[in-house]
Amino acid sequence: MKLKSLLIAMGLATSVTLAGTASAEIKVGFIGSLSSDTGLSTLRGAEIAIEELNAKGGVLGQQIELVKADTAEDPTEGVKAYEYLAESEEVDFIISGSIDDVSLGWMPRMQEFQIPTLDTWTSYIGIIDMVVEDYDSMKPYFMNIASDEALATLYIDFGKDVLAEKMGWKSVIILQEDTAFGGAINGLVTDALAPNAGIEVVDTIVYDVATNDFAPLFSRATDSGADFIYLISSVNSQVVSSQYVKLQVPMGMTGVNVAALGQEFWEDTGGAAGGISTLSPVPSVGFKLDPVSQAFVDTYQAKYKSRPVMPHFNGFNAYHGLKQAMAAAEEAGEFNNTTWVTAMEKQDLTLKMDEEMWLRYGFWGNDEVEERTGRTYPHNVRFDITAPYDDASPSMVVIQWYEDGTNAVVYPEKYATGEFTVPSWVKKK
Question: What is the reported pTM?
Fold first, then answer.
């Protein structure tokens, strides 16, 4: 009897152990920087989504395992990271928190391996153009942030409605980092500001991302006679921001400042951030959150105590996008096939605030034409660039940091929680 009881007990113990450590047969690969707020936002959004999915039984009856590959925000390392996920880990799906230049680096590997891949940070319109031009090789690729053409289009509206009409600014000098992202945004803004907002671009200053002394560049900007500076910075943005404040550059500065997207921006600049404004994809700092987004943030902040204390927009993109990718796999019955792509194209999540459409996570179809720009954006997140923004999320909002350390959304009006202003040392027109 004792032997029989022992065997039964061992059998039960084995059963429990196997149930508790069931092998994860669906592999999701994360590719991005493991030491940046941007990369960690995507990683953590994916981790929370996977935990919630696994708690409900996983996908296709299997648990999901997450494996990581660090790009160190370097294109060469990005290629190695993608190859590692594809060849060594043989992942079923890749979720990316890569910056533009890194995504461009590994894009040929995506085309080669044909692994379903979702980009949550890069907004480079050139990648969407690749989907337009070569749909067959690019169809496993999706981008659930509005592409920079859409970002720039709505920012032109901000230029017209606020910078020109409210502030009286008629000329700008562009201060642009030397990156693919910087060049793309510069081109779009330069081509559109004058004809659409009545703001003349008087000059462009392109600087190396390793620049640590911006005094000569700010002097050149001041001497140009322009009314304000349009900054385009996605790398080391804290440096240019803090020097703008400490030098009390006598002209307003707005544009694209990636560091300002995080709640740590004030601390990172030593409190030298007052007056800085930037466009931001949604949700952003200062953005009112719908109940679903707030629940995600509550889970995030309960789970993670290190920076970023608030996920950047791409953390939300990762959370919702990963769930959509897994739902598409459930519908298709597997990954990496035409059926999965078709199912992913149909994914569409609308989040409401007080019964009103607030955020939308869906994708443009292959042949859909966006009315305002007159072009297609296949596999780009569905965005709305025409007020009252009742068809989809706006492509972006403008946020501003004030001299007391607070921040707010200042444009468009539907999402505004504050007013656009210039820092106290800048003379108003």
Answer: 0.88
Q: What is the pLDDT of residue 149?
A: 87
* Calpha distance 113→175 (Å, rounded): 38
Instruction: Using the predicted structure, report yes or no on whether residue 24 has a pLDDT greater than 80.
Output: no
Distance CA 322, CA 339 (A): 17
Collapsed DSSP state (helix, strand, coil) of residue 356: strand
- Token pair, residue 246, equals 């400490």
Q: Tokens standing for 419?
A: 């007013």
β-pair type (93-96, 117-119): parallel
What percentage of the chain's residues is helix, strand, coil (to nearest 5)?
45, 20, 35
Which token pair is 295? Answer: 């629940």
pLDDT band at 236 (very low <50, low <70, confident <90, very high): confident
Three-state SS string over 227-271 comes to: CEEEEEECCCHHHHHHHHHHCCCCCEEEEEEHHHHCCCHHHHCCC
Q: Is 24-147+291-350's fold the same as 149-288+395-415's?
A: yes
Domain 149-288+395-415 belongs to what topology?
Rossmann fold (3.40.50)
Task: Match 């519908």 to its residue by tokens.
Answer: 331
d(CA 408, CA 420): 9
Determine how β-strand 375-376 pairs with β-strand 369-370. antiparallel
pLDDT score for 21: 39
What tokens appear for 120 in the block? 């949550």
Average pLDDT of the segment spanning 202-226: 96
Sign of CA dihedral 146, 282, 234, 163: positive
Which tokens is 99 given?
């910056």
Helix/strand/coil for 18 = helix
- Of 105, 142, 97, 139, the closest CA to residue 122 belongs to 97
Residue 59 has pLDDT above 70, yes or no: yes
CATH topology of domain 24-147+291-350: Rossmann fold (3.40.50)
Given the structure tokens 């466009």, which residue do they identify?
Answer: 279
Confidence of residue 235 (pLDDT cuts 50, 70, 90): confident
Domain layout of the chain by residue ranges: 24-147+291-350, 149-288+395-415
pLDDT band for position 429 (cuts 50, 70, 90): low
Contact between 410 and 400 (Cβ < 8 Å): yes
CA distance 232 to 254: 9
The mean pLDDT value for 339-353 works out to: 97
pLDDT, residue 16, reads 32
Please, what's the largest Cα pairwise distance for the chain? Answer: 96
